[in-house]
Amino acid sequence: MDEVLAAIHEVHSAHLRVSHPLAKQILDRAVSILKEERKQSALIEIGSNVLVVRIVEIDEKSTLVRTSLTNCLLEADEVWHA
Q: Nearest to residue 52, comparing CAs of 70, 69, 30, 72?
């Protein structure tokens, strides 16, 4: 059991070490794209699996959404909904 817990701790630690530099790289790339291309679209593709979504409108009333769907984007008629 100690070996399993140690492995879990090692994987978690590795994730934490990588996540901050990766987030900075993504942010730097997004800023670069926005500055260079003066992007005004609601959706900007940074890489094959990385998208930046610009909020273009906020509804006046709340909508309940399952937590498992909060980081998912759905495409319908070329309009992106978060």
A: 30
